[in-house]
Description:
The chain is mostly helical. The chain has helices at 10-27, 36-41, 65-73, 78-92. The termini are far apart.
Amino acid sequence: MSKIKPAVDSEMAEFEAALLRSIDQTARGEGRVTTPEQIMVRRAGRPAGTVKVAPKVSTTIRLSPDVVQAFRAAGDGWQTRIDAALKDWLRTHSPV
């Protein structure tokens, strides 16, 4: 028999410690255990309540190059700013 201690792999020791902590948490009811039954109950798609009541409508619109350039020059969100400008216009004018 050899009296040399086997080398301890630090990565394996860290993994074992994390595994034991996880088992202890589960035993105390603190862990998040997902059973196959819980997985089957979940529905595909977005969680309830995350869909907007009135989502925006995708459309194609032709704008003057100087208008697009001016809005893009202000950075990201230029389409949202155009939408806000059109909403503001609608408040002060009656649509045709």
